[in-house]
Amino acid sequence: xxxxxxxxxxxxxxxxxxxxxxxxxxxxxxxxxxxxxxxxxxxxxxxxxxxxxxxxxxxxxxxxxxxxxxxxxxxxxxxxxxxxxxxxxxxxxxxxxxxxxxxxxxxxxxxxxxxxxxxxxxxxxxxxxxxxxxxxxxxxxxxxxxxxxxxxxxxxxxxxxxxxxxxxxxxxxxxxxxxxxxxxxxxxxxxxxxxxxxxxxxxxxxxxxxxxxxxxxxxxxxxxxxxxxxxxxxxxxxxxxxxxxxxxxxxxxxxxxxxxxxx
Length: 263
Ligand code: MN
Fold this sequence. Notes:
By secondary structure, this protein is an alpha/beta fold. About 20% of the residues lie in helices and about 25% in strands. It has six helices and 15 strands. It has helices spanning about 5-15, 110-115, 125-135, 155-160, 175-185, 210-215, and strands spanning about 15-20, 50-55, 60-70, 75-80, 105-110, 120-125, 145, 160-165, 165, 170, 190, 220-225, 235-240, 250, 255-260. A nine-stranded mixed sheet has the order 1-15-13-5-7-11-12-4-14. It has a two-stranded antiparallel sheet with strand order 2-3. Strand 8 (about 160-165) and strand 9 form a beta hairpin. It is globular, with a radius of gyration of 19 Å. The two termini are about 30 Å apart. The protein binds manganese (II) ion. Manganese (II) ion (MN) binds near residues 76, 78, 195 and 250.
């Protein structure tokens, strides 16, 4: 009887498979999405931490903290229940999504040059079709990771890139999302930006098309990823499991990739 996982275990031990961390550090200045105040929309808590004890009079042998943040803080998972279009699906929250959702192949669409030339760049269906002409069809169940090198903006202000009219960062043309959800049946998409949509996505039709159409199709999202430049275009496996929050819409998440060393 063959067990393919034994080969994976041996490859992890030898270094033939390496593990790449795609997650940012959670800290008080981790950038979070702030919605336009003029709509009166309520906003999320930033990450904060309070020390309970640290080998001291409050607890002589132990160190631990209380933490507080919104579900959509730092590198995080978006479950289909996050959006109104996904509210009626079954098993659509962080605690009910099938665990197989959390382990999937990934492809990386490198739009670095386009994002550098235009901070409001919108990735189109044609862009994905051109990518497929080089790298092959995007496999079913894949995570589609949208590389922009946006995560290299280490200063929160430049990362959020907020101006009077809101944030400016790359996103998606709606037809690209429909293509991935319906014709490629992906697990979801992941971005390097604060959310999965463009900074100016409130003005798109539909509003926030990645959220609207992906979650409407019972698909997921990942945001604030980093180190996508360490992944091959195809052939890596992504592990992204949200905290099992009852009826949760998402959660901060340690996203890692298994990558073959010889490419
Ligand atoms: Mn989110």
